[in-house]
Design a protein that fits this description.
Enterococcus faecalis V583 fold, 14 helices, 20% strand, 4-stranded antiparallel beta sheet, globular, alpha+beta, 38% helix, single chain
Length: 423
Amino acid sequence: MVTPTFTEELVDTVRAANNLAFERLDNADPWVVDVAAARDVIPNYPDNLVLTSGAPMEWVDYFGGQREALIGGALFEGLAPTREAAIAGFESGAIAIGACHDYSAVGSLAGIYTASMPVFVVENRAHGNVGFCNFYEGKEPRRLNYGCYDEGVRQRLEHVNTVLAPVVGEAIRRTGGVALKPLIARALRMGDEVHSRNAAASVLFNREILPAVLDMVHDGFPGVRDSMVHLAENDYFFLRLSMAAAKASADAMVVPGSTLVTAMAFSCRGFAIKIGGLGDQWFEGPPPVHEGKLFAGHTEDEITWMGGESPITETVGLGGFAQACALTLQEYQGGSAEVMIERNLQMYEITHGENSAYRIPLFNFRGTPTAVDARKVLDTGISPVMDVGLAGLDGGQIGAGIIRAPHECFEMAMAAFDALPDR
């Protein structure tokens, strides 16, 4: 496909739109202010709705681990008594399926939300919009978001609902909310990229809520010790906060005439993007190209796709766009420091600008490459890179690595952009 040729006047119009979209992203001010059940804070969330990752699809289109995760969500929520009844409920429409992004939410891997699941409420105080993300289940490889549902998964989800989320939510409310942007900026200087590495950010968040937690201990609030042990043992806890912060930030980028990417996500079927000038329209291509490092005992032929919206972090200049902050990731996801640095530098060629808050010490504190421009992806042939966990055919996490978005998404997006009436 040939990249659309813009007139000089249109180039100026697009540049102005992209400048505005980038400014909105760069000025975003995400704060986590609450934790509550999805039905209580996500607008228009009915009790029979199960959310999942990726562009919207019909039940018949879901397969593999993502289908299993949807069934597990229905069972956990009590929407059906058996697996067979859950399948029948999805087939009849008695159990509804929704796309996370349509509800201002983002989901890790399969991204399952049900009405009772607690979510972080993150306000973008610069623009007034809100983003949501549910809780990390814990470090056990078998998790609902990795396509698994059994008694152990159910118990861990129930623990999140009844113990962990109430404690964390109360601590956040007593603290008066936590500003996430300066916390993320500091975590980058401490070795995180806040997608596949969140160790520093998790510690910094725990420190922010510690005074409130101590008061809660004094007041006899139940479950505090168990919850703080969970937070201390799970470095990935903060990922859900970085995702919600990124979603609240990226949603402010929807600007008519902009070619900047506002979302990147995938389902079991393929990878998809949105761009600012085309609002909620998804442009879907094949599954992403991947490379990574598998846990012991697993092989490449086990890798499967079952969804994922954590690339919302890359959308705002984090994750793979801040890899040079987190060189220790090479031990976890493979590769080398030299390759990670080279990848990170490559991302400057396809982005609109440099982040004023998120900076990379190794690059003399240069701002992270931020806001992918679909035009530049096509012009350069460089695909966005993302840090991800890798799921297995039988469910569970089997490794980690990087993926690159397929070019077909950007080709379709720019073709639709070029076909707009005012073009």
